[in-house]
From TrEMBL:
Swiss-Prot/TrEMBL GO biological process terms: transcription by RNA polymerase II
Species of provenance: Aureobasidium pullulans EXF-150
RPAP1 C-terminal domain span: 179-246
Lineage: Eukaryota, Fungi, Dikarya, Ascomycota, Pezizomycotina
Name assigned to this protein: RPAP1-like protein
Family (UniProt): Belongs to the RPAP1 family.
Amino acid sequence: MTTERRRIDEENRQRIAEMSPEEIEEERRELLSSLDPSLIQRLLGRATIEEGVQPEKKIQPDVTKPRKTVKFAEVKDEPAGANVEVTAQDENGTSTKQNEHNHPGHEAAAEVALPTDSTIHFPRPPQPPSLDPSDPNFLEDLHEKYFPDLPADPEKLEWMTSSPSNAYSVSQTSLDPNEIRFAFTGALIPPSLAAEIPVTMGLHHHGNAPDAAGYTIPELAMLARSSVPAQRCVAFQTLGRVLYRLGKGEFGDPGEEGQGTEGAKDTLGELARGLWFEVKKESVLEICLAESEGRGAAGGRHMGAKAYATEAVWLWQQGGGRRWKAE
């Protein structure tokens, strides 16, 4: 106890010692009548704990219910349909008897055994052959195996087929101007190099020759009309560089308007005239000018495409700004 509690306790004990037994009993009755009985019990329990006396715990009587046990009487060769007597006895010795009817159908069901013959055969539908991507009939087998209930549409799967071996290859004896392919820098890609450029360069696409790298002038003109701004940006950037190289005579001198070919020495001139013919036929200059003036596919709202188209027009002018009319 603290000093204050000890002092109060001594004062209380001294005051009680000065009181007579009648006064103590009267004060006790008055105190008990003014307090809640549950509060008095808690205070008394706390007082015993503080004095080192553990409160008594109430001992619950052990009430255990008697357990029942079941015993079956032995049955000796009971005929079918006979009653089987079952005796149930609990721990107090009380016995109860129950009758069970023996059904002959139960014995018959127990005697029936499952078939153990392993020759049971479940029919399976015919399986299509395994798929081989190198097989010429790969697309037909793919459709038959995974989509047999859907109508076949071979045109939608043409992009998955390999292009002919002679598409833009060195085995060709001649090429049309609309088949000539260019890199993003505007440089011409010869057939011998188109097959060696890896796909990581981004020059392969689903065009007329998917296995060959590069873009033709008709393909670039088509992308320049696309509703996708990124495709238009690539097209204008590449077309501007092609026009610059074409105007500078890198692909040959086309000569004057209407000038014809003069033998084998004019091969580069013939190439240049063919490329100018494709530029005119695909309206490349008109598309670039329209986009740069805000009259393009999106009405000039895409600033990136407009900037690349303006650059293409500027490169065309730097290359000479020539409008060669091929005939």
